[in-house]
Amino acid sequence: MKSKKNMLLVLMSGVFLLSATAWISTSKNNLAVHAPKPAPKVQRYLYVVTPGIRNYLGYGGHGIQVFDIDNNHKFVKFIKTGGLNKKGKPSNVKGVDVSLSTNCIYISTLEAIQCVDITTEKVLWEKEYEGGVDRISISPDGKIIYAPSLEKEFWNVLDAKTGDIIKKIVTNSGAHNTIYGPDGNYVYLAGLKSTMLNVADTKTHTVTKQVGPFAADIRPFTINGSQTLVYVNVNGLLGFEIGDLVTGKFLHRVVVEGFNIGEVKRHSCPSHGIGMTPDEKEIWLCDGANNRVHVFDNTVMPPVQKTSILVRDMPGWITFSVDGKYAYPSTGDVIDVKTRKIVTTLEDQDYNDVQSEKMVEIHFNGGKAVAAGDQFGLGQVKKVAKN
Fold first, then answer.
1. How many C-beta atoms lie closer than 10 Å to residue 150's C-beta?
2. CB 317 within 8 A of CB 220
3. What DSSP string runs through 187-242?
4. Would you indicate the residue range of the signal peptide (predicted)?
5. Which of 267, 264, 320 minimizes the C-alpha distance to 292?
6. Each residue of 4-61: pLDDT tens digit?
7. Please, which residues have CB within 8 angstroms of residue 57's CB and are 6 or more apart in sequence?
């Protein structure tokens, strides 16, 4: 009798164990089925448009070279573009910008603007404009393009979706570089035949203010995130000048110390290229004669020179990664902002050097473009609202 009871207990325990095991196994399967999928990793790519140094094909050919920022800036792919002149030769690329609204990257050349779909990588349209085109800039909402004529009297305001002209702004300043303010309310228009920076109101697309005069005609420039200060290169200066965007007044002249002004390969300007780290703590300045990038402390006013970095060729432009970790001079050197060290150099699929004054960062999530940087090295610190 006792042995029968023991056997019954053993059988009941076995049934319980099987049931428990089955429940645990089923629960694990359910957990596996219903567990949330990890969010796709954001991919960060640097789009470098060539020929981005005059029409020199030896610096990367004709098209867009794409590099993986998080994989030591390794070459990813090459995208064919338009941009041929009337003789069928690749034309100088003058500017590049991105619209997330239209999902397009826009490239200006001497004669035209081309609109390239970021996903399909096809040229959707390419339009020539009277007077040519220089360095463009797109509104923060991605709907409007300010397109300077090629060193002539005016800017065209364009519909980013179609390329159609909305309005023409005449400044008679030798239209050249353009920055759309981060708040979308103002656009800053620098002509290389004027010592004054024009400021256009985007509600009316008319010039409502001027900043300056600066010591000479304005070349590349950048602004801070709160749109209170502008830092400009001017002809004849190894250094930069600063203006007040609120009052319109000239503020400071900053000269590079320890280096002489010498001959430059391009631009006829000792300092052609200036950018601000996203946190606005530093100004990085190009020195074309000495193949250097000079770094200034921007936490004091006027900024104070800190150090200089030797690069592999003449720098004619500079911008930064969105996170501020890397500096991108036009030489194709990739500089770690914190250590000042060149960590790599841009090379195409055949290991040829890639250089360009026209590049922009684009972020992708699940194959869709979700964020973009800028070509100018703009400050990203917005004005703090007062209580």
1. 18
2. yes
3. EEEEETT-SSEEEEETTTTEEEEEE---SS-EEEEEE-TTS-EEEEEETT-SEEEE
4. 1-22
5. 264
6. 444 444 344 444 433 444 444 444 444 445 566 666 789 999 999 999 999 999 999 9
7. 50, 51, 90
Give the residue among 222, 237, 230, 178 at the shortest CA–CA distance from 202.
178
- pLDDT tens track for 281-313: 999 999 999 999 999 999 999 999 999 999 999
Q: How far apart are alpha carbons 319 and 360 in whole angstroms?
A: 9
Tell how far CA 192 is from the center of its chain: 22
How far is CA 330 from each of CA 92, 100, 117, 335, rounded to the nearest angstrom?
15, 24, 24, 11
* Residue from 316, 308, 303, 190 nearest 254 by CA: 303
Report which residue type is found at 63.
G
Nearest CA among 244, 243, 238 for reference residue 285: 238
Q: Which position has the token pair 């290389």?
A: 192
Per-residue pLDDT at 26: 45
Name the helix (H) or strand (E) containing 15: helix 2-34
| CA-based nearest residue to 221, from 110, 135, 106, 303 | 135
Question: What is the predicted pLDDT for the residue at 323?
Answer: 98
Residue 4, SS3 per DSSP: helix
- Pairing label, strands 137-138, 123-128: unpaired
Report the candidate in 123, 114, 55 with the shortest Cα–Cα distance to residue 90. 55
- pLDDT at residue 338 greater than cutoff 70: yes
State the pairing for strand pair 74-79/186-191.
Answer: unpaired
For residue 178, the cross-strand partners are 189
Residue 177 token pair: 């570089």
Encode pLDDT of 124-172 as tens digits. Answer: 999 999 999 999 999 999 999 999 999 999 999 999 999 999 999 999 9
Domains of the chain: 43-372 (2.130.10.10)
Average pLDDT rounded to a whole number, residues 100-116: 98
What pLDDT is attached to residue 7? Answer: 46
Rounded to an integer, what distance in angstroms lies between the CA atom of residue 351 and that of residue 367? 27
175-180 and 165-170 strand pairing: unpaired
